[in-house]
Amino acid sequence: MLIDDEPAQSRLITAIAAREGWRTVVAGDAETAIAMLGTREGMQLSAILLDQWVPGDDACTLIAELKERRPALPILMLTTSASPLLAVEAMRAGASDYLVKPVSPDRLMEALRAVTTREAPRDELAPLTEKMSATLDFDAMIGTAPTFRTALAQAAKAARGHGHALIQGESGTGKEMLMRAMHAASPRAKENLRIINVASVPPNSIESVLFGHEPNAFPGAFDRQIGALQHCDGGTLVLDEVDRLNMAVQTRLRDALETGIVRPVGASHGFRVDVRILSAANSNLSQIVEGGLFDEILAELLGATRIKLPPLRERTGDIPALTRHFLQRIGEQPGLTHLSVSDGALGLLGAFDWPGNVRQLQSVLFRAAVYCEGDTLTADSFPQLSELLGELEACDSSHLHEGVGVMLYTEDGNLRPLEDIEADVIRLAIGHYRGRMTEVARRLGIGRSTLYRKLSDLGIDNAA
Questions:
Q1: What contacts 398, CB < 8 A, 6 or more positions away?
Q2: Torsion-angle region of residue 162: left (phi > 0), alpha (psi -120 to 50) or beta?
Q3: In the predicted model, what is the mean pLDDT of the chain?
Q4: What is the CATH number for 61?
Q5: What is the pLDDT of residues 155-199, one digit of tens each?
Q6: Which domain holds residue 188?
């Protein structure tokens, strides 16, 4: 059931849902929606999508009433507000997810699948919409894993130049955040930045979005539109999921990058532009090129610098630091408080393989914080993880201590070598102070030159 009083949006959502076999019934107001629950059609509902605009400030009251009447029916709220407070209130009232308009068709379908798939609990861990604004600097990129630090070092070096860069990694690894940080650290930081998720733009519109169009260039083109490439002249254009570009647009983009000239759709003239493109792909672009689905020359142009972000399962030692960082940020949101986290909870988080990566970890922590009634998250705060992994005692004991502190003893009860303990302390300090080596040296009570000598002697790649 869609609770919406706007005909155009109702038709659009109905059409999107129909592509995956959903049948939609529409209620134009709260009273109609409640009455419809008791009808034969209402008894067959699998989910409710509520546009917050219909009940206004009473949206959470309506959610609570709907949940009281049909406790097992998942409810998703659609809103134009990105307020974390509203997200907290909606979820506490009983909403399963919170979608910010304009929502892409893929995101809408992902949310519907997540709340209606009966194979939960894994689907309960699907990423929620981002509730907190992204931070724009490298200091916010938490982690000490060598592969991660190497990626950051590459990105920091590339940021100082003007060349294009390609970030590759699984969904949720932080590619967009890294590209924002690169722009903020670049000589173009004060110039225009535009971020386009290719997958969220209709295929028949992406050419116009990138290149712009002239009036009457195609049916419905009543006004001139300046494309993203021209808008970002002198600045940075971020193309997320660039591997989703169709071949025709790939060819046009390749020509524009080779010549430096952008020609809007329907125009007989072009504009010379100086734009830097930071692009991201969830898949290995080289393999897509080999499969004939991506232009080889364009891939080379976009990938002048290539950076690979590792998945979270390959850097589980970073989970404690990431968890504490996210809880700090979550605690700053309206309606939430600062929470600590127990070692048992960290062990549980470290044992999961996180298919949604860092974004999924943040979403799961956000959900746990919303429902936490104490001041500490424990293993009981994550019932879906517990169900997936079994009781905490069944978890690999190494996860209970990984990243929590520095281990002094080996498994046989003997002290570890001093060199190994010292190396762990330095790694812990680098992660805690986010790679700021002057601060690391100061806190450890040694000089920077001594710190770098120890890094070399102990074989630690700080990648700072």
A1: none
A2: alpha
A3: 84
A4: 3.40.50.2300
A5: 999 999 999 999 999 988 999 999 999 999 999 999 999 999 898
A6: 146-308
One domain, residues 291 and 156: yes
Contacts of 455 (CB under 8 A, 6+ apart): 426, 461, 462
Q: How many CB atoms lie within 10 A of CB 39?
A: 11
- CA dihedral (438, 444, 449, 452) positive or negative: negative
Residue 40 lies in a domain: yes
* Residue 218, phi then psi, degrees to nearest 5: -160, 165
> CA separation (Å) from 453 to 319, 378, 417, 419, 460?
28, 40, 19, 14, 10
Instruction: Clarify whether residues 258 and 111 are in a common domain.
Output: no
**Distance, CA of 459 to CA of 423 (rounded, Å):** 9
> Based on the domain organization, do 93 and 200 belong to the same domain?
no
| Co-location of 108 and 153 in the same domain | no
Q: What's the pTM value of the predicted model, to 2 decimals?
A: 0.68
Identify the pLDDT of residue 20: 81
Name residue, tokens 């591997």: 243
Please write the tens of the pLDDT for every residue from 45-92: 999 999 988 887 788 899 999 988 888 889 999 888 766 777 788 888
* SS3 assignment for the chain: CEECCCHHHHHHHHHHHHCCCCCCCEECCHHHHHHHHCCCCHHHCCCEEEECCCCHHHHHHHHHHHHHHCCCCCEEEEECCCCHHHHHHHHHHCCCEEEECCCCHHHHHHHHHHHHCCCCCHHHHCCCCCCCCCCCCHHHCCCCCHHHHHHHHHHHHHHCCCCCEEEECCCCCCHHHHHHHHHHCCCCCCCCEEEEEHHHCCCCCHHHHHHEECCCCCCCCCCCEECHHHHCCCCEEEEECHHHCCHHHHHHHHHHHHHCEECCECCCCCEECCCEEEEEECCCHHHHHHCCCCCHHHHHHHCCEEEECCCHHHCHHHHHHHHHHHHHHHHCCCCCCCCEECHHHHHHHHHCCCCCHHHHHHHHHHHHHHHCCCCEECHHHCHHHHHHHCCHHHCCCHHHHCCCCCCCECCCCCECCHHHHHHHHHHHHHHHCCCCHHHHHHHHCCCHHHHHHHHHHHCCCCCC
Domain with 453 in it: what CATH number? 1.10.10.60
Are 202 and 277 within one domain? yes
State the pLDDT at residue 402.
46
Residue 232 to residue 230: CA distance in whole angstroms: 5
